[in-house]
Specification:
Nuclear Transport Factor 2, Chain: A; alpha+beta
């Protein structure tokens, strides 16, 4: 695949990721990952020395179903496309005003995400 086609494919993936996040669509989100994906989460409860590591699309689907079922808004503020990768900044808010910020960087293979690291911070 040439660089222009690769960039277009990544842009389409990024658009679908934005739709899935903002529309709270766990099936769409899970479809954007490879079967053997790895998703690393770093936050207060899962610090860098002990991150939460989810392996496989099924594990991610379950996480997305949980997150998307919560009464909250999600907004992708900014996304950056790189060669074989993408990064995005997401903000979330619960009805009580609690805010969450998530910064993610993802590596791509064959037009899907195969490894993602997400760092999130919550209001306390």
């Amino acid at each position: 695949m040439n660089a222009i086609a690769d960039r277009q494919q990544t842009a389409e993936l990024c658009d679908a990721l934005r739709r899935g996040i903002e529309q709270r669509d766990p099936a769409l989100l899970a479809s954007l990952y490879t079967d053997d994906c790895e998703h690393v989460i770093i936050n207060r409860n899962s610090p860098p020395s002990r991150p939460l590591v989810l392996k496989g699309r099924e594990a991610l689907r379950k996480m997305f179903e949980d997150v998307c079922a919560r009464e909250m808004t999600h907004c992708v503020e900014k996304a950056v496309i790189g060669e074989g990768s993408l990064a995005f900044h997401q903000t979330c808010q619960y009805p009580d005003g609690t805010r969450v910020v998530v910064l993610s960087i993802a590596q791509l293979r064959d037009g899907k995400i195969f490894r993602e690291t997400a760092i999130d911070s919550w209001d306390e």
